[in-house]
Amino acid sequence: MSRGPRSVRFTTPAYGGDWNPEQWFADADADAILDEDIAKMREAGVTLVTLGVFSWSRLEPEEGRYELDWLEGILDRLHAAGIGVDLATGTASPPVWMALNHPESLPVDARGVRLGFGSRQQYSPNSTAYRTAALALVDRLADRFGDHPALVLWHVGNEFACHVRECFSEESKEAFRAWLEARYSSIEALNRAWGTDFWSQRYTSFAQVSPPSAMPSFPNPSQVLDWRRFTDDSFRSLFEAEAAVIRAHSTRPITTNFMGAFPVLDYRKWAECVDVVADDSYPDPADPLAAHEIAFAGDLMRGLGGGAPWILMEQAPGAIQWRSRNSPKRPGQFLLWSLSRLAHGADAVLQFQWRQSRAGAETFHSGMIPHAGAVSRTWDEVLETGRALSRLGPVVGARTEAGIAIVVDWESEWARAASIGPTEEPAEPLFALARHWHRTAWEAGYQVDLVGPEADLSGYSLVIVPGVFIDRPALTDALAAAAQGGAQVLVVGPSGVVDESAHAILGGYLGSARGLLGVAVADHAALTGPVRGDFDSPSGPASAVSRITRAVGAPAACTSIGLRICSEDLADRLSALAGPDARARCGMWAEELVGYGRSDAGAENGGCGDAGGEARAFTRADGLPPDVDAVAVFDESEGGADLAGMPALTRRMFASGGAAWYLACHLDDVTARALFDLLAGRAGAAPVMVGLPDGVEACRRGDFLFLLNHSDASVRVRGVRGTELLSGRSVEDGIEVSPRSGVVVAAPA
After folding, report:
1. 70 annotated as ligand-binding
2. According to the model, what pLDDT value does residue 47 have?
3. Among 525, 410, 412, CA closest to 469
4. How far is CA 441 from CA 204, 292, 346, 671, in A?
5. DSSP β-ladder status, 462-466 and 561-565
6. Is 159 one of the catalytic residues?
7. Rounded to whole angstroms, how far apart are CA atoms 466 and 461?
8. What is the residue-wise DSSP string for 382-430?
């Protein structure tokens, strides 16, 4: 299951969750509760539990005084019951003595307010006192339990940066200055990288530099981008320090729990530090897109691990407690979503938590044993899921093959969020544009890998690069090799807008990709949507007296732009999806494209749109280069008045049959699907199955076909043969799948 020598090997998918038995130590019948818990675990088919995540105050009740006997007793009891342990280091929630003895360890927010004790994760990642105490605790745990027979793997910290995403303490400021000096060597190099001659921000020493705390106006985007990098490095250095202590005592694998597409930490870098990727995932049962959220998160984790299986470290058996309103999982969804995790590459399905808390901030976060106990639907579904997973041993270790890749880049997301304009983008959800294209592929039934900009793209026939804001020359080289080798490459704007210091690319956006694509972005042309309400708008009730302003055009106040398709193939695919009268449309992001460069010996002229004449680098009047086609152009409808006739989608063909496409807008769902179908067809990619009923997701993992019915109706899926693993029955020509359930079919031998 691991990419390295410290591997995690399961015989069946691991099943269990966080167990926090210290919650019951004060009860008169605490020992009986522990016995009951372990008996219930065996009944439910639990094979792995996470221990000690929030146990620091029990493990070290006073600074320097350790009490570990209770933990050893629980490890012994679990081992005797045949249950493995994911042992946490306990460092996620420092005890009260840390706050009292070392108040400087408490985090400070951007306004200079020091946060107090009484919640969790109340530490600065740059606190020397915190780090010293944390490593001392880890050393005690690893020395004593590093070879315990119950120990399966180590769990460092918990959800790093979930609550304290940055710290502005004096220690953090000093650490930031040291980080900057190591990165830039000289203050002049920092001044150049940050563009400090604007707004009179020049520094003459590193001692003058501070983090981007609360300011009168906009912060320097380059400074913010480096602060993001520094913060990520700070938290990751904590993980690496704890992991190094563990490795000195124990050979068991080490992980920590990621949180999906979390905006604060660059999990590509973190994945290189863990022995196995693990994730926490809490999709909303009230959201119809929850099924896609599971698929996206699973594909992301699989990609972070280089295709290796991963661990679902946390999901909820029922409702959570931290949204403003919290819906429980619907009947059947607990097993269905657990199967979906396996379908997307997981080898373990763990929950938070085993027994629902009686007190504290997570009292109403569901547990595998709920407040009602065994007389509940939750417990029935816990038993059902345990039985199902126990039958899926053959799936463990199997890998997923995908011919389509979508590139995601954390630093590009940071740079886009730090930029002041051209549009204000929310920091979450991360990878919004990548999610859109992933969902497009998912709804169409295709399997996708989510990969970083440094990935080897040679095995993919279709590569989509949605909004990689930082220009990545190495990525461009890989894309060029892919297109020249026969792949379809789609780059979606805004891409290649800034360099690694968040400086604008000059000479036309797209940077290093301009030559590959044959176009450059001359300007962004985003729509704003309405800027006034109907009451005070000159087109509203006041129009009768607005003689001047009622004649003023404002296409940017629209929320979409129409497109005219120049390609018969694309037009046919759009008509097939939405009827002969369907119109191609895009949303509020658009760009003005110009031609760039010349055709080369390997390219072929396509010929649709305004192509013609000799194309010189970045000369708009010449139109597109001869080897670049305009596949779609903006029309004059809605917000397109000033863009009409300009290319919205271009294609540069290569002799190999590959092509480099550029999309200068964000398509609506139907138009995006039409384009995806066109690209997938030209790439020779195929969906897992065709003709599936509504609501059914098909995933192939190794020799196993997962059919996941997310709908409320029973369906029959035809064309399926093999052995259904959950029931053991033979399947000859199709299978029934109940509402909100799934089946797993092994291919015939």
Report:
1. no
2. 99
3. 412
4. 51, 11, 20, 13
5. unpaired
6. yes
7. 16
8. HHHHHHHHHT-GGGTT-----SEEEE--HHHHHHHHHS--SS---S-ST
What is the torsional sign of CA 14, 15, 20, 24? negative
- Choosing from 314, 411, 413, 724, which is the catalytic residue? 314
Burial call 153-164: b when 16+ CB within 10 Å, e when fewer: bbbbbbbbbbeb
Query: pLDDT at position 538, please?
Result: 61
- Amino acid at residue number 745: V
CB 50 within 8 A of CB 18: yes
3-state secondary structure 285-341: CCCCCHHHHHHHHHHHHHHHCCCCCEEEEECCCCCCCCCCCCCCCCCCHHHHHHHHH
586 marked among binding-site residues = no
Sign for the CA dihedral angle at 495, 498, 504, 510 comes to negative
Q: What integer best gives the mean pLDDT of the chain?
A: 94
Q: What is the pLDDT of residues 128-182, one digit of tens each?
A: 999 999 999 999 999 999 999 999 999 999 999 999 999 999 999 999 999 999 9
Residues in contact with 647: Cβ distance below 8 Å, sequence separation at least 6, in sequence order: 519, 593, 609, 610, 624, 630, 632, 633, 664
Q: How many CA atoms lie within 13 A of 448 on its CB side?
A: 32
DSSP conformational letter for 527: -
Instruction: State residue 16 phi and psi, 5-degree precision.
Output: 160, -140
> What distances in angstroms separate CA 414 from CA 203, 408, 410, 430, 490, one per listed residue?
24, 12, 6, 9, 22
Spot the catalytic one: 159, 381, 591, 724.
159
The answer to whether 158 is a known ligand-binding residue is yes
From residue 313, give the alpha-carbon distance in Å to each of 55, 121, 339, 367, 459. Answer: 18, 18, 14, 14, 30
**C-alpha span between 613 and 617 (Å, rounded):** 13
Question: In this predicted structure, what is the pLDDT of residue 598?
Answer: 56
What count of residues does the chain have?
Answer: 749
Tally of helices (H runs) and strands (E runs) in the chain: 18, 28
Query: Contact, 218 vs 494, CB < 8 A?
Result: no
Token look-up 């106990």 returns 373
Report the C-alpha gap between 131 and 120 in whole angstroms.
Answer: 16
Give the β-pairing of 665-667 and 584-595: antiparallel
Q: Which residues of the chain have pLDDT under 70?
A: 1-5, 533-542, 598-622
- In a 3-state reduction of DSSP, which class is residue 44? helix
Strands (E), 467-616: 488-492, 519-524, 561-565, 584-595, 603-604
Give the side-chain half-sphere CA count within 13 A for 61: 5
* 120 marked among binding-site residues: yes
Q: Where are the alpha helices (DSSP H) in 504-628?
A: 514-517, 568-578
How high is the pLDDT of residue 599?
A: 43
